[in-house]
Design a protein that fits this description.
This protein has 53 residues and is mainly alpha-helical. The chain has one domain (2-52). Helices cover 51% and strands 11% of the residues. The protein has helices at 11-23, 39-52; strands at 2-4, 30-32. It has a two-stranded parallel sheet.
Amino acid sequence: MELFNFNSDRIKRDNFVDEALRDAQLPILHVKMSYNYDRPELENEIMNLIEKN
């Protein structure tokens, strides 16, 4: 899981990480950066991602 933000300095790095993980056939969950997170929702998203792979 990686937090997603709109910092333009990270675009190249984020694209590299996404491509590397895709090439390695590893899933990634992008989560929009927030001050608060809904834990059950995050757990559900993580479990769904794991079950797909």
